[in-house]
Amino acid sequence: MGAQAGMGEERGADMGNERVLLIDDDARLHDLLDSYLGSHGFVLSHAYDGQQGLAMLSREAWDVLLVDIMMPGMDGLEVLRRVRARGATPVIMLTARGDDTDRIVGLEMGADDYIPKPFNPRELLARLKAVLRRAGGAMVSERIQLQDVLIDLGKREASRAGEDLKLTGIEFDILVALARRAGRVVTREALLEAAGRGDVFVGDRTVDVHISHLRNKLGDDPRSPDFIKTIRGVGYIFSKGSP
Predict the structure, then answer these.
(1) Least enclosed by CB within 10 Å: which of 62, 188, 202, 233?
(2) Per-residue pLDDT tens for 144-188?
(3) pLDDT value at 205 more than 70
(4) Quick one: which of 195, 192, 193, 215 has its CA closest to 205?
(5) Cα(105)–Cα(96) distance, integer angstroms
(6) Separation in Å, CA 44 to CA 23, 128, 174
(7) Are strands 18-23 and 64-68 parallel, antiparallel or unpaired?
């Protein structure tokens, strides 16, 4: 069974019928979560494998995906890769407890969060709300302009010279964390924490991979970067450009 008991607390009132797609071959998990998440304002649908999940994603809009890594046929990491190729729908990976490799790979590929099985539904609810807060953005009107890079926090979009950068959730959060501290060094640990993942210990490599992806999308030459500069042994700095 994927989740644990613990579903007797009062209904939350801060969610508004957000649509969640569970992609997992465990039908019992859907049955367990359906009424619980429903009582907190979520609408849960279920796909039994990766192919069905991707087909449902192509037909309908979803606020967040819950994707199990261990599935027959197409595994969750391949589902994540294809989801990221289509856009930036938030994804929470469901992983086997203690399997750090899957968690690290999932985060490097653009997962917004992970939760190990078995889990308490209350923890899943908290993580769903946190991911949706990041995706929705409380600062609806806030924009950051640095050089020719424009970051719209309300829309969770970033562009360079008018061209959409097509960032994943973690890439966007790390870019915002760097941009808000433009001209100052930001450590790898601070980047994960600022991106809302301070509870996840995955090592320096995860941040480095996302920085590499950001540089590619920005068209930044890592040997002579215009935007994200490496401070060896410490972290990164986003250049403000010419005054």
Answers:
(1) 233
(2) 899 999 998 777 889 999 999 999 888 888 898 899 888 889 888
(3) yes
(4) 192
(5) 13
(6) 11, 12, 29
(7) parallel
Span 83-134, pLDDT tens digits = 988 777 899 999 876 667 877 888 888 888 999 988 999 999 999 998 888 7
Bridge partners (DSSP) of residue 159 are 150, 164
What does R_g of the chain's alpha carbons equal in angstroms?
18
CA atoms within 13 A on the CB side of 71: 27
Contact 145, 153 (CB under 8 A): no
**Interatomic CA distance for residues 203 and 14, integer angstroms:** 34
Task: Return phi, psi of residue 35, to 5°.
Answer: -70, -35
Contact status, residue 67 vs residue 2, Cβ threshold 8 Å: no
CB proximity list for 90: less than 8 A, separation 6 or greater: 63, 64, 65, 112, 131, 132, 134, 135, 169
Please give the Cα distance from 30 to 27 (Å, whole number). 5
3-state secondary structure of 20: strand
DSSP state of 243: -
Calpha distance 108→171 (Å, rounded): 10
Token pair, residue 112, equals: 């917004």
b/e map 174-191, b = 16+ CB within 10 Å = bbbbbbbbbeeebbbebb
Domains of the chain: 18-136 (3.40.50.2300), 143-238 (1.10.10.10)
- Amino acid letter, 29: L
Instruction: Give the integer Cα–Cα distance in Å for 85 and 68.
Output: 18
